[in-house]
Amino acid sequence: MALSSVPWDLGTGVPALEVADLHTYYHMKFGLVKAVNGVSFTLPTEQTLGMVGESGCGKTVTALSILRLVQWPGKIESGSVKLFGQELMSLDEERLRAIRGREVAMVFQNATSGLNPVLPVGEQIQEMITSHLPVERQEARKMTLELLERAGFPSASDLYSRYAFQLSGGMCQRVMITMAMALRPKVLIADEPTSSLDVTI
User: Fold this and answer.
1) Between 184 and 154, where is the model more confident?
2) Distance CA 125, CA 141 (A)
3) What angle (nearest 5°) sits at the alpha carbon of residue 79, between those of residues 73 and 82?
């Protein structure tokens, strides 16, 4: 997994991301699973931080915890996550939704399940744009097509109206990368983003 940040508020001395003593546990019927147990790290601005480890060691759960996307029976027990000095753990859900995608975004590990199966992929990108930016649907559609073209898709207009089940795993992965980078977030979390892609891509 990789975490990258772009220049923002340089000169303040505040890191892009600070994670301190993060604990996320899963309360299972057979007992307690400590998926993330006291993780701490700092991501400076204009830097990339790699997190490596064997399968199941907690990399993905760490990423989900940063964005507060851990699903039941998982629970963030304690810890601090600061984005450019702002504590994310204490924000209400409305404010957190405004930050996700715009200030910090994530490329999820399983692209196929990360896309909405009943909504065309272009509309999913467009919906994210209109939910964060004051633009009309027509302008958002134009922005979406431009993003898909920049991602190297040969026919952006055709891809716009296709569904996830009509795409290969690699194409779904590229759509997810496009979606994560659409709003140029200040911090990008990439959970094995190239696992489904051909080496030439």
Assistant:
1) 184
2) 9
3) 115
DSSP 26-95: EEETTEEEEEEEEEEEEE-TT-EEE----TTSSHHHHHHHHTT-PPTTEEEEEEEEEETTEESTTS-HHH
pLDDT attached to residue 119: 94
CA distance 138 to 129: 11
End-to-end Cα spacing for the chain: 18
Say which residue the tokens 């194409």 belong to.
171
> How do residues 116-129 score in pLDDT, each as one tens digit?
999 999 999 999 99
Q: What domains are defined for the chain?
A: 2-99 (3.40.50.300), 111-190 (no CATH)
Report pTM. Answer: 0.85
How is residue 171 written in tokens? 């194409």
Given the structure tokens 């744009």, which residue do they identify? 129
CA distance 48 to 70: 23
